[in-house]
Amino acid sequence: MRIFHLEYLGKLKELRAQAKQEYINLKAEKNKKPADNTTKNEHEPEENINIMTEPEIYSNLLLEYHNSLDENKRKIISLTSDTGFEKWISVYRKPGSVCNFEFYTKKNRFALTLDKTYIKNIKITDQLAYILGFESYDISESTVARFIPDMRGGVSSFNVYAPGLIEPMVIGDVSAPVLRIVNIRGRQDEIVEEQFLFIQYHKLLIKEIYEIFIEIRTSSGALMPFQYGTCTLTLHFKKAPYF
């Protein structure tokens, strides 16, 4: 935008100079007397030649220049016609001045403030909208979230799957090879160790194990979005008694 701003200012200066020169030429042409010696009737009215003013010439040149621009540049000029380029450049560098998330402690709600002069709408992911408590992921005006924020993003537990290793078990209305359902606890960057006093044994699908494939998913079935770190899983195998 800065480069186009400088180019646009230079072009305006050039068009003003061109309009001034064209006006001077038209004025000189009007004042030029005819070279022939023809005499006019003293009662014959003189021909009144109207010429364009300098602002009119400049307006026509500017319109012609705007029409030669592509759609994106014309849109930029239209948006910045009232406030100017400098304000838009400042907003581009500091978007927080016209778009800002705030948390109201008394209401226990997030709020989004938008300046409609510069921001048409804000789109966030469905998950982020749920976390912040907004009903919609597409927000077009300043608003306060309807719901209390859920910083866990609705994920309070995860399921540990071992496909191809154990027999499926019934969970709700579906069956899946789930080893364990683990509740999520702890803070960010905290090492969490979960020990189970009551071990749950599952029947194996195979007698010889060459590799174990583990999946950790949310209750909705999506892969758990770990950002970093490692996860260590310890399994205990026990020979099944014969009856």
Descriptive account of the structure:
This protein folds into 3 domains: 2-29 and 50-91, no CATH class; 94-144, no CATH class; 158-243, no CATH class. The mean pLDDT is 80. It is an alpha+beta fold and 243 residues long. The strands form 4 sheets. A 3-stranded antiparallel β-sheet has the order 1-2-5, with no helix packed on it. It has a 3-stranded antiparallel β-sheet with strand order 9-6-10, with no helix packed on it. It is built from 5 helices and 10 strands. The protein is elongated and about 120 Å long. Helix 1 (2-31) packs across helix 2. Residues 28-43 have a biased composition (Basic and acidic residues). Residues 28-48 are annotated as: Disordered.
Structural class: alpha+beta
Task: Please estimate the helix content.
Answer: 25-40%
The major β-sheet equals: 3 strands, antiparallel
- What is the number of independent domains? 3
User: How much of the polypeptide forms β-strand, as a percent range?
Assistant: 15-25%
The global form is elongated
How far is the first residue's CA from the last residue's CA?
80 Å
Uncertain regions spanning at least 5 consecutive residues: none
Region (Disordered): 28-48
Biased composition (Basic and acidic residues): 28-43
Question: How would you describe this structure in keywords?
Answer:
243 residues; alpha+beta; three-stranded antiparallel beta sheet; 10 strands; elongated
